[in-house]
């Protein structure tokens, strides 16, 4: 058992508010790097927020999951879901201390429920804490009166409703959404485990996703409840299939927020959040060699947790050019169960148990989970940060911040940020930033002792440092931003294969540096047509074998009541080398093919209240493949989404 101690932090920081001119004020440190408003969300022709992130430089959303065939994020050359990205809904953090995995938080937030989506790129741990080492995503939900129904390919069905009322008892808003379908089809003759397809020519990947949210605001007090559940059974992963593959995740929280303006210069905001998360998943990942004496390899996370989170933040405006922000965070988490379901191997890694699973000192069947084992009863995390904003002159501004955090009682680290912005003229400005953050090892990486995954209690936090130089230029009809970044990952936490068995061990590996270039731009052809584009290129190999070059180009047109969006995604080919990291377990390479995808959407406003939308993702049904670094055989790949067409009818009142 760990001793939980508080943190004492003395921080002195210098920061700045950016003034493009007297009419346009922005805070460098607090401003999101990219913001999708409602019009942009409608025009990108995607059904969920993860796919929307394809149109942010440095982001790619692909299906690369080894054990549940889910969409995952690649951010600046790293598979970002396992502890590098913070996902928030209305400012409330969904990540847990137990796993830190956004994937298990169900990334399929329906884009029609989002009013805006804010993305903070690079290390943002000073304000958002552990795991905000590559990006922070904040989804702000709608507060409208609307009903929406949708249908699409593979028996896709979606229904949602939202309501907003301002009464003498406060402001009330809620939304509810249900999505389900058979999932896209995959030809059985391309699946190695054809014996499990039961004579069918095709298999489907059924899914079900529910979301619910309710808000009440009275004066300075806000009460917010949010819940979501995602279910996917009988799915296909790594070109392998079994009808007993199963995945279920739930997330829910209730948040209390209170903000009080003490004086014209000083305000306080307090937030108390209680959250629950649960994941139950298992999937067949490999076929055993000798039947019936040994059976297939199965793998999957299985855990649930409860979290209490308290945040206290204050803002103090010293003068027109100088302001301060201070914050304190405390988290405590308990888990009901924690671990990983693995294959038929016994605890000594020698004998086989046909059709059974070894799970935390207990034998269970594939379809039953049975009793669970607590790895640690409770965890605490403490953090304190300070930020200061200072306008040095009308054209020069500096930003900086510092945070000290003790996470899990064993991972203490300091995160910092410093930036400088200079306005060159009325059309352009340049900024330089240095940021650092850390990712604490999660409980599976530390304590798992099953025969397939071995934890390592000596793991140290993984550190990420980022150096960034940006240039912005704005003309009347067009604008562009170019960013060069150099990213250093040290003490990288990853799985290694010390021998030729199926057993894998977590270790801190060597450092990994990534140098890249990102760009985005808008060009207004005329009053009806606008072009938007992004470009990302890495000048060296990425750690997770992500795409080296990818770009997007969107043509958005609005004529009276008709809006049309044609959105193109281009990804380069990648050759994955054999013998990744410190292991020579992989004997063959893998070619990740070049990909060109087209999404299209047509929106038509019928009268004042009715909106008709026709969306098509991967219009030309291009077949492509993506490498999953968690695989043990580089020849396998996760099939990607085929063409998906849907129609939506929305009524606003």
From TrEMBL:
Signal peptide limits: 1-20
Keyword Transmembrane helix on entry: no
Annotated localization: Cell outer membrane
Record flagged with keyword Signal: yes
Membrane-related topology note: Multi-pass membrane protein
Top-level division of the source organism's lineage: Bacteria
Domain TonB-dependent receptor-like beta-barrel residue range list: 201-619
PROSITE patterns recorded: TONB_DEPENDENT_REC_3 (PS52016)
Pfam families: Plug (PF07715), TonB_dep_Rec_b-barrel (PF00593)
Keywords in alphabetical order: Cell outer membrane, Membrane, Receptor, Signal, TonB box, Transmembrane, Transmembrane beta strand, Transport
Main location: membrane
Domain called TonB-dependent receptor plug: residue spans: 31-133
Name of this chain's protein: TonB-dependent receptor
The species this protein was found in: Psychrosphaera aquimarina
């Amino acid at each position: 058992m760990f001793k939980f101690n508080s943190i004492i932090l003395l921080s002195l920081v210098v920061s700045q508010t950016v003034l493009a001119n007297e009419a346009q004020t922005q805070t460098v440190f607090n401003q999101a790097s990219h913001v999708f408003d409602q019009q942009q969300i409608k025009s990108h022709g995607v059904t969920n927020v993860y796919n929307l992130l394809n149109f942010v430089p440095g982001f790619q959303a692909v299906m690369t999951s080894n054990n549940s065939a889910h969409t995952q994020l690649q951010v600046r050359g790293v598979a970002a879901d396992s502890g590098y990205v913070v996902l928030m809904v209305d400012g409330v953090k969904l990540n847990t201390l137990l796993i830190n995995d956004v994937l298990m938080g169900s990334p399929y937030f329906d884009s029609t429920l989002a009013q805006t989506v804010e993305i903070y790129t690079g290390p943002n741990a000073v304000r958002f804490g552990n795991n905000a080492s590559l990006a922070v995503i904040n989804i702000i939900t709608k507060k409208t009166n609307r009903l929406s129904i949708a249908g699409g390919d593979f028996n896709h069905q979606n229904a949602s409703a939202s309501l907003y009322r301002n009464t003498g008892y406060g402001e009330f808003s809620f939304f509810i959404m249900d999505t389900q379908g058979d999932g896209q089809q995959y030809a059985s003759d391309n699946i190695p485990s054809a014996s499990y397809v039961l004579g069918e020519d095709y298999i489907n990947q059924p899914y079900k996703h529910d979301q619910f949210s309710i808000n009440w605001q009275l004066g300075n007090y806000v009460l917010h409840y949010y819940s979501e559940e995602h279910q996917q059974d009988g799915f296909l992963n790594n070109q392998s299939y079994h009808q007993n593959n199963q995945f279920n995740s739930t997330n829910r929280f209730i948040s209390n927020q209170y903000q009080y303006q003490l004086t014209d210069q000083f305000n306080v905001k307090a937030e108390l959040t209680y959250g629950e998360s649960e994941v139950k998943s298992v999937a067949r990942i490999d076929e055993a060699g000798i039947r019936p004496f040994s059976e297939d390899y199965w793998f999957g996370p299985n855990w649930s947790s409860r979290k209490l989170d308290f945040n206290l933040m204050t803002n103090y405006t010293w003068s027109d050019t100088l302001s301060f922000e201070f914050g304190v965070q405390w988290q405590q988490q308990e888990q009901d169960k924690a671990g990983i379901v693995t294959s038929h191997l016994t605890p000594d890694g020698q004998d086989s148990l046909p059709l059974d699973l070894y799970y935390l000192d207990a034998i269970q069947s594939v379809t039953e989970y049975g009793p669970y084992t607590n790895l640690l009863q409770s965890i605490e995390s403490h953090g304190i940060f300070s930020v200061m904003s200072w306008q040095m002159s009308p054209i020069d501004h500096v930003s900086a911040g510092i945070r000290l955090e003790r996470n899990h009682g064993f991972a203490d680290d300091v995160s910092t940020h410093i930036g400088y912005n200079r306005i060159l003229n009325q059309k352009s400005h340049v900024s330089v930033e240095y940021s650092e953050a850390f990712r604490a090892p999660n409980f599976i990486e530390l304590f798992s002792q099953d025969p397939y995954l071995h934890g390592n209690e000596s793991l140290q936090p993984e550190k990420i440092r980022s150096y960034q130089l940006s240039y912005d230029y704005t003309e009347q009809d067009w604008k562009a931003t170019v960013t060069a970044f150099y990213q250093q990952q040290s003490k990288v936490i990853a799985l290694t294969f010390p021998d030729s068995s199926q057993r894998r061990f977590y270790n801190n590996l060597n450092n990994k540096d990534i140098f890249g270039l990102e760009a985005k731009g808008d060009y207004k052809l005329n009053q009806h047509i606008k072009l938007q584009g992004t470009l990302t290129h890495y000048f060296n190999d990425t750690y997770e074998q992500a795409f080296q070059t990818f770009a997007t180009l969107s043509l958005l047109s609005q004529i009276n009541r008709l809006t049309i969006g044609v959105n193109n995604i281009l990804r380069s080919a990648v050759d994955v080398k054999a013998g990744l990291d410190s292991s020579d377990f992989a004997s063959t390479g893998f070619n990740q093919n070049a990909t060109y995808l087209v999404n299209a959407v047509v929106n038509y406003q019928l009268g004042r209240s009715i909106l008709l939308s026709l969306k098509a993702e991967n219009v030309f049904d291009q077949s492509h493949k993506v490498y999953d670094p968690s695989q043990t055989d580089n020849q396998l790949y996760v099939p990607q989404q085929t063409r998906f067409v849907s129609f939506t009818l929305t009524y606003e009142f």
